[in-house]
């Protein structure tokens, strides 16, 4: 089953087309990870899936209806999205930021309920940000800030999450923490996740489906073991690398061959 | 994840630890309301003519047609009411304006409201021969509305709607255009110059209850819309992408905000002339008190606006025997305080 | 990652080499001031030629280059040139000052009048006009010398205050803007209050000054401006190479090796001085400092206002407005028209650029 799909979308900014005629089905209850070199259109695609960017052609469909025609608040109760570089106003505390994730569940006659409180509490606890709840967002470290924003998206309590590079500023331990959290959401709540990651090894380990993009096109998609091959790394990233089985998970492990280690051809 | 220790900030009773407690903010609002009542009292009790407190009280409770009655009931009372209305309007309008443009120098006149009102009033004087204040109010209000609509439409041409930069630039450009036209007309018309230069300083003196009645419905409606707009402003302050993914309809939020600003500031400018500086400083002070949550910031800014306006007016009456208009008192007293605040606290960024 | 393949210029840039020296430049950034300057020459020549005895633009140019007859040389150099030259210099100074302020503040609304410098000058000038007129004796010398002098002093005082009050372990653009708002509110309100103090004719004279006026400018006013600009503009342009780094914020700028506080403080003072000198000569010609940097930025498609482009367009807008005015409504001050011409053009530009980006 797929609730969220892109059909023949053309995406771009102004005259410039970044993604053309792309199809993507997001399998319900699965974790889809998009990989690809910088500037290939990953964020652009994710923003379109989250109705932040209207396709110039084709359509993004949620439950068979065009997502940009659905009431935006209704969409916000189903799809949560964390942009690549969000910014908070100065002086906002972590708990206040996370509380704002409840916006789509509130209205002028129902400002704050027990459900809101429960959702914010558990969102804070899940990222370990509850200990920092009273601190001001712009005084946090890069990784803490990242986790505060993830908490806000979690508080939105949606069945689909679109995360743009959610672990980019984190140390390795917290990277694993966040990805474990994503898997947990997936197993416990059946959350559908689409995220952009740059760490190919972690992508292979945590993804059900891997989507490899280059120049706005999907080059390959499927199970990590099928997608992440030496040939693909060369095609998509111009990267010379060996692919071995990961000793922990058995998924592909990418080991780049650096230029200075490469046997001299002459 | 990290081992969770008992949370250090906040109390369990207040819901989520770390959320800014409601109680403190309610107390702040309560204190501001008390200050406003006090300021209104001062504005009725003190003036260029010194009246004994008993006479003032008498005039309020049991009027008998004495001179004190006249001063209190037909000069000071309407002046105080207009001050409250205009102060509330400019404070709330300023906070909304800065929130929507995310620009700390956005004064409430930025949508072209001030110059729109001024232009209409100049036309009223020069073309239609209007001489009295009631006429000015209607013309001023119409001009403010029209200018704001034009600025908003220009700021939203193409694309998905207005952005902070396009709104600010469109407002500045339209204001400059109208300012040029106003100067051109006034310089060629001696009588227009005469009336206009007095309107331009901004004052709440010499207006009676009828003027208050003219603007009150618009101010009240504007305040209601402003409060309705605040949750939307909160999400907007996280950036447009996040606001959209939280289900905020950007266009509707902007339209609502612009409508509220126009009603509020248009009414204030029409009745009192441009006192834009008030709407500019008050939100900064309010933000330092309440933090970035617009649901609290906007009402606080409104109350602070009314308090400051009344106080400045009373000071002007006392020190100059009412020869200094409130606009200049506000600037000369308020600006140094504002600069001091800027230097000492480093005001919160938008 | 692929290796760095070539060391050619980034796309959209061209390289100019002369021996060991090489500059990269973007064609639009160079084209805007060049085209602007060409237009400026034409407009200025027409403007100089206009008057009680009309002189053909080509004859004007010939005369300016030294090839005119006695009569034309006399008319042009003694009578006509000061007004147009003042327009060019003052417009350029406002354009440059605006571009610098907007870059330091990282805010398109930051211009000398929002920051209070114009209004400082206004307090001086309007004070002399109104108080002088009130006493009924300031007409001759005091009006001619007193007004620009008072304006200069007022503007410089405002600039120094802006600097001193914004300085707190360095200049922060945000703080500068907020302090400037406070200063301009004081100045603005005093000016408009002064207008109500004097009689209506003084108010009209003062309003003419506030709007900005080139009609009465003679050599005695042009000389000081030219001298001041001859010193300030080169210094500013040299100091301004740091602006490119400053726009990214303090941390990045420090990382690029810029002494952030010194650079910003110095540039602030220079820009304030430019604005004060220009205001003293011709009044605060409305809108030039705000609009031309934004117009230049959109025409050159750069991220921050280009300095040369802002200067040239500032001069062009001012002289162009002056010419238009003389053709249509000679009694009005030039500042009325800079706004009426500049505002629609600025609006047109950003409407167009939004169409392109968002369509
Ligand atoms: N707001 C924008 N305006 C114009 N071009 C953009 C914008 N955002 C991204 N692009 C361009 O679109 C292309 C894809 O960008 P993006 O989707 O952000 O790449 P990535 O795969 O690294 O996330 C890039 O070439 C980028 O320059
Ligand atoms: Mg990206």
From TrEMBL, chain A:
PROSITE patterns: ABC_TRANSPORTER_1 (PS00211), ABC_TRANSPORTER_2 (PS50893). Pfam families: ABC_tran. Gene3D superfamilies: P-loop containing nucleotide triphosphate hydrolases. GO terms for biological process: iron ion transport. GO terms for cellular component: plasma membrane. It comes from the Bacteria. This is Iron complex transport system ATP-binding protein. It comes from Prauserella shujinwangii.
From TrEMBL, chain B:
One of its GO terms (molecular function) is transmembrane transporter activity. It is found in: Cell membrane. Residues 1-21 are annotated as: Disordered. The keyword Membrane applies. It is a multi-pass membrane protein. It holds the Pfam family FecCD. GO terms for cellular component: plasma membrane. The chain crosses the membrane at residues 27-48, 80-97, 109-130, 136-155, 167-189, 209-228, 255-282, 294-312, 324-342. The keyword Transmembrane applies. InterPro entries: ABC_BtuC-like (IPR037294), ABC_transptr_permease_BtuC (IPR000522). GO terms for biological process: siderophore-iron import into cell. Keywords: Cell membrane, Membrane, Transmembrane, Transmembrane helix, Transport. It comes from the Bacteria. Belongs to the binding-protein-dependent transport system permease family. FecCD subfamily. This is Iron complex transport system permease protein.
TrEMBL record, chain C:
Coiled coil: none annotated. Gene3D superfamilies: ABC transporter involved in vitamin B12 uptake, BtuC. One of its GO terms (biological process) is siderophore-iron import into cell. It is found in: Cell membrane. Signal peptide: none annotated. Keywords: Cell membrane, Membrane, Transmembrane, Transmembrane helix, Transport. It is a multi-pass membrane protein. SUPFAM superfamilies: ABC transporter involved in vitamin B12 uptake, BtuC (SSF81345). Its main location: membrane. GO terms for molecular function: transmembrane transporter activity. The chain crosses the membrane at residues 29-48, 84-102, 114-134, 146-165, 177-195, 225-246, 267-291, 331-351. The keyword Chloroplast does not apply. InterPro entries: ABC_BtuC-like (IPR037294), ABC_transptr_permease_BtuC (IPR000522). One of its GO terms (cellular component) is plasma membrane. It comes from the Bacteria. The keyword Transport applies. Belongs to the binding-protein-dependent transport system permease family. FecCD subfamily. This is Iron complex transport system permease protein. It comes from Prauserella shujinwangii.
């Amino acid at each position: 089953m797929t609730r969220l799909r892109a059909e023949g979308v053309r995406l771009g900014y102004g005259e410039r087309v970044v993604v053309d005629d792309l199809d993507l089905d997001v399998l319900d209850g699965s974790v889809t990870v998009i990989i690809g070199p910088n500037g290939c259109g990953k964020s652009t695609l994710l923003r379109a899936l989250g109705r932040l960017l209207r396709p110039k052609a084709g359509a993004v469909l949620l439950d068979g209806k065009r997502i940009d025609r659905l009431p935006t608040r209704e969409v916000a109760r189903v799809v949560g999205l964390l942009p690549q570089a969000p910014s908070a106003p100065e002086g906002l505390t972590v708990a206040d930021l996370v509380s704002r994730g409840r916006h789509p569940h509130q209205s002028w006659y129902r400002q704050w309920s027990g459900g809101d409180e429960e959702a914010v509490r558990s969102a804070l606890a899940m990222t370990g940000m509850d200990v920092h709840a009273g601190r001001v967002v712009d005084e946090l470290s890069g990784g803490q800030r990242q986790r505060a924003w993830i908490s806000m998206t979690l508080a939105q309590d949606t069945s689909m999450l679109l995360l743009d590079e959610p672990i980019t500023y984190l140390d390795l331990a917290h990277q694993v923490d966040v990805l474990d959290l994503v898997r947990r959401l997936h197993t416990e709540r059946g959350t559908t996740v689409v995220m952009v990651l740059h760490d190919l090894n972690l992508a292979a380990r945590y993804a059900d489906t891997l989507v490899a993009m280059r120049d706005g096109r999907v080059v390959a998609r499927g199970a990590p073991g099928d997608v992440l091959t030496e040939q693909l790394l060369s095609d998509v990233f111009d990267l010379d690398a060996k692919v071995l089985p990961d000793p922990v998970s058995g998924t592909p492990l990418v080991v780049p061959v650096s230029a200075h280690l490469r046997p001299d051809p002459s | 994840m990290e081992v969770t220790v008992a949370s250090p900030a906040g109390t369990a009773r207040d819901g989520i630890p770390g959320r800014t407690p409601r109680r403190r903010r309610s107390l702040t609002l309560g204190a501001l309301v008390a200050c406003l009542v006090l300021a209104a009292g001062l504005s009725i009790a003190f003036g260029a003519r010194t009246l004994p407190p008993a006479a003032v009280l008498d005039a309020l409770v049991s009027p008998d047609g004495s001179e004190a009655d006249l001063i209190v009931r037909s000069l000071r009372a309407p002046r105080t009411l207009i001050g409250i209305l205009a102060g509330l309007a400019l404070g709330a309008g300023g906070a909304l304006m800065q929130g929507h443009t995310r620009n700390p120098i956005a004064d409430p006149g930025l949508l072209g409201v001030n110059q729109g009102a001024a232009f209409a009033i100049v036309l009223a004087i020069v073309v239609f021969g209007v001489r009295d204040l009631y006429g000015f109010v209607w013309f001023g209000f119409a001009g403010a509305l029209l200018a704001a609509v034009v600025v908003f439409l220009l700021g939203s041409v193409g694309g998905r709607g207005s952005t902070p930069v396009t709104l600010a630039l469109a407002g500045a450009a339209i204001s400059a255009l109208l300012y040029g036209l106003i100067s051109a007309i006034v310089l060629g018309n001696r009588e227009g110059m005469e009336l206009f230069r007095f309107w331009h300083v901004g004052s709440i003196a010499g207006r009676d209850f009828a003027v208050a009645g003219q603007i009150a419905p618009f101010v009240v409606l504007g305040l209601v819309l402003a409060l309705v707009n605040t949750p939307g402003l909160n999400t907007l302050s996280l950036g447009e992408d996040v606001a959209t993914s939280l289900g905020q309809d950007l266009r509707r939020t902007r339209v609502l905000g612009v409508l509220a600003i126009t009603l509020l500031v248009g009414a204030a400018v029409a009745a009192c002339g441009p006192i834009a500086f008030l709407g500019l400083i008050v939100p900064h002070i309010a933000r330092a008190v309440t933090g970035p949550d617009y649901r609290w910031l906007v009402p606080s800014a409104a109350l602070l606006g009314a308090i400051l306006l009344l106080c400045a007016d009373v000071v002007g009456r006392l020190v100059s025997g009412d020869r200094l208009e409130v606009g200049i008192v506000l600037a000369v007293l308020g600006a140094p305080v504002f600069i001091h605040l800027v230097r000492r606290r480093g005001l919160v960024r938008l | 990652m692929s290796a760095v393949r070539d060391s050619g210029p980034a796309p959209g840039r061209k390289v100019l080499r002369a021996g060991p020296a090489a500059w990269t430049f973007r064609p639009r950034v160079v084209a805007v001031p060049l085209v602007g300057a060409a237009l400026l020459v034409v407009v200025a020549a027409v403007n100089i030629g206009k008057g009680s005895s009309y002189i053909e633009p080509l004859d004007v140019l010939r005369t300016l280059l030294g090839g005119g007859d006695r009569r034309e040389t006399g008319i042009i150099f003694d009578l006509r040139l000061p007004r147009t030259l003042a327009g060019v210099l003052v417009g350029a100074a406002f354009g440059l000052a605006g571009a610098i302020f907007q870059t330091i503040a990282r805010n398109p609304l930051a211009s000398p009048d929002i920051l209070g410098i114009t209004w400082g000058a206004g307090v001086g000038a309007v004070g002399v006009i109104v108080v002088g007129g009130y006493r009924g004796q300031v007409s001759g010398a005091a009006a001619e010398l007193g007004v620009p002098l008072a304006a200069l002093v007022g503007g410089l005082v405002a600039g120094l205050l802006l600097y001193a009050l914004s300085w707190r372990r360095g200049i922060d653009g945000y703080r500068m803007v907020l302090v400037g708002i406070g200063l301009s509110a004081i100045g603005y309100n005093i000016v408009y209050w002064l207008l109500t103090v004097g009689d209506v004719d003084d108010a009209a004279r003062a309003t003419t000054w506030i709007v900005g006026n080139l009609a009465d400018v003679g050599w005695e006013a042009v000389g000081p401006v030219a001298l001041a600009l001859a010193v300030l503009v080169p210094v500013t342009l040299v100091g301004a190479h740091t602006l490119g780094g400053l726009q990214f914020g303090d941390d990045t700028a420090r990382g690029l090796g810029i002494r952030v506080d010194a650079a910003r403080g110095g540039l602030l003072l220079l820009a304030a001085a430019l604005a004060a000198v220009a205001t003293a000569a011709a009044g605060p010609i409305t809108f030039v400092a705000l609009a031309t940097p934004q117009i230049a930025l959109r025409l050159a498609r750069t991220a921050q206002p280009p300095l040369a482009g802002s200067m040239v367009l500032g001069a062009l807008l001012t002289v162009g407005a002056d010419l238009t005015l003389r053709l249509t409504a000679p009694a009005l001050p030039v500042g009325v028209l800079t706004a009426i011409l500049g505002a629609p053009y600025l609006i047109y530009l950003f409407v167009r650029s939004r169409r392109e980006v968002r369509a």
